[in-house]
Amino acid sequence: MSVLTLALFIFTSQFMNLCHGAGIATYWGQHGDEGTLAAACSTGNYKYINIAFLTVFGSGRTPQLNLAGHCNPSNPGSCSSIGNDIAACQRQGIRVLLSLGGGVGTYSLSSPADAQQVADYLWDNFLGGNSDSRPFGNAVLDGIDFDIELGSGENYDALARALNRRSTAQRKVYLSAAPQCPFPDAHLSDAIDTGLFDYVWVQFYNNAPCQYAHGDASQLISSWNTWSTVNAGQIFLGVPAAPGAANSGYIPPDNLKTQVLPNIRNSPKYGGVMLWSRFFDNGYSTAIKDSVNGGSRSSKSGSGLHISIGGIPIIGNP
What we know:
This protein is α/β, with parallel strands linked by helices. Helix content is 30%, strand content 20%. The chain has helices at 3-19, 37-42, 80-91, 112-126, 156-164, 189-192, 218-227, 253-264, 284-292, and strands spanning 23-28, 48-57, 64-65, 95-102, 106-107, 143-148, 174-177, 199-203, 234-240, 270-276, 307-309, 312-315. Helix 4 crosses helix 5 (156-164) and helix 8 (253-264) runs parallel beside helix 9 (284-292). Residues 22-295 form the GH18 domain.
């Protein structure tokens, strides 16, 4: 590799990292009155949307989607319009993933071979493969989210590896996880330890020891500092988008902006905020959007990136 090629490679890699601002993720699909997926994306507030949930899979079960009142997955073609919405979101630069699990349903992985079978099903029906029964038609999702809250948690590391093997230079299969904030997570610890997850949106709610409570953010920030060390691409702060979205852990937007975000967004792996869920987001994402990205490592005054060849600068701050 020539010196110029090496320099350009370093610049491209660092430039992409510097330009990647933080963003907001949310979950869509669990309430018929939350509007369409396309409408959620058109707000301009989200960078990532998880379609929730595939609630039945593994151990020889026929996989089943549960999308509340949005469509009837058991009726062929009923959910095909969502495929058009997925494509519309992706054209706006929003990554759309399918979320596995949730707090209801019947799912488990009995063995690494079972995990491989589930990975093959996901590839053929939601990712880059082919099947006569693709619920969203020709739409190709960007990846798979693990929101595993039931069962033993065994073999999800094998599922992550099997999905990661489907990534190519042309199309990456993104992986995300939504662990509870007590560390390590009882269901996803082994999977996250693979180091294959691009996004980890930790649920800092419904868990008294590690959530915001009574105006005090200290427990949450302490837990965040622990989670920020895990081997993953980016870590997100998962919070309820309204008091009714969770049993506990709600943070008023102004408190999030003044008490929490200034203490976490300089973390090297800080990726932003995850909101549960789109249905409950009646202005929360709008209220916090600018502050979520307020600690981005890039700035208007320049990135601080300087590259030179033979003493001659090829890129740098003016």
